[in-house]
Structure formats: C-alpha cells, structure tokens
Amino acid sequence: MNTSVRRYKRSWKIERLFAWLRNFRRLVVRYEYKDDNFLGMAQLGCIVILLRKCL
Question: What does pLDDT average to over the chain?
Fold first, then answer.
C-alpha cells in the first residue's frame, strides 16, 4: 500500500474523532480554566464515543 494512502487513512480517523468531539458542548466552548480539567473532559468524551460504538 502506498504511504500517502496510509497517511490519508490515519489522518481521516483523527479528523473524524475531532468532529465527534465537537458534539460535546463543554469541549467546544472551553469552560474549564485548568488544563487538567479540560484533558479529563476530552478523555471522557473519547470514552463516551468508544462506548457508543462498541455497544
């Protein structure tokens, strides 16, 4: 497989994840002032997305 095709597939997955994360209002409008809290919310959003896909 060509490396540019592999790179495109990988970037598509990352762009799709960011699009899904934009559905969480707390991540779109950054209410959290501390970086650790924002990171926790981003991780929680990823967990919710994974649970929705697996269940």
Answer: 82
